């Protein structure tokens, strides 16, 4: 399994992942050829590394399994919402609730605080114990933004089975990576050869 996780981690980002952490989260569970899958959030250490690479948590956050489970759970709800949007189907109410819950669990307004020596100042509460909740809120907010912004029209699923990643289309490109595009072209060429024989 470790080699499949490395293979998935070596995949380049799908178009749109750099701008949308929601896409990156959705694509962190990767279907690979041969019926294999890789979960880039499979362990707390992997989840921490994934969050740190995206500046959503410090590299030494010390995530526990419960934190990785929360991240994987939100991923499934985000994947459901993206798949609904791509298919033009109504979203599952539970997925909408999960994203709204993640967004509303963390205060976003800077609160007024008072220091005895320096006086009043404003800060957003961000205790170390709430690192994952803040990351989940940012990803959930990005999910809502992605699904309601003009980019939503460009959202699609990779057209190269068995890949299950999402991307934002640029032009005619229907694949999340060159590797998937090559695999799709090879499959089409093979199909043409076998039907003409």
From TrEMBL:
This is Zinc finger CGNR domain-containing protein. Pfam families: ABATE, zf-CGNR. InterPro entries: ABATE, ABATE_dom_sf, Znf_CGNR. Residues 154-193 form the Zinc finger CGNR domain. PANTHER family: BLL6575 PROTEIN (PTHR35525:SF3). It comes from Streptomyces lavendofoliae. Gene3D superfamilies: Jann2411-like domain.
């Amino acid at each position: 399994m470790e080699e499949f996780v490395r293979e998935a981690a070596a995949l380049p980002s799908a178009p749109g992942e750099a701008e949308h952490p929601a896409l990156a989260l959705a694509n962190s569970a990767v279907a690979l050829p041969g019926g294999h899958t890789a979960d880039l959030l499979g362990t707390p250490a992997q989840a921490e590394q994934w969050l740190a690479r995206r500046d959503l948590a410090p590299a030494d956050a010390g995530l526990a399994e419960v934190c990785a489970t929360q991240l994987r759970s939100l991923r499934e709800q985000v994947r459901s919402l993206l798949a609904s949007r791509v298919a033009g189907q109504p979203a599952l109410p539970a997925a909408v609730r999960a994203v709204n819950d993640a967004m509303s669990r963390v205060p976003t307004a800077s609160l007024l605080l008072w220091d005895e020596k320096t006086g009043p100042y404003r800060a957003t509460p961000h205790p170390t114990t709430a690192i994952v909740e803040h990351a989940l809120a940012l990803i959930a907010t990005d999910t809502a933004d992605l699904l309601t912004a003009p980019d939503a029209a460009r959202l699609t699923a990779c057209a190269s089975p068995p890949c299950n990643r999402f991307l934002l289309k640029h032009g005619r490109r229907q694949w999340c990576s060159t590797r998937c595009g090559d695999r799709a072209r090879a499959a089409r060429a093979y199909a043409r050869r076998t039907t003409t024989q």
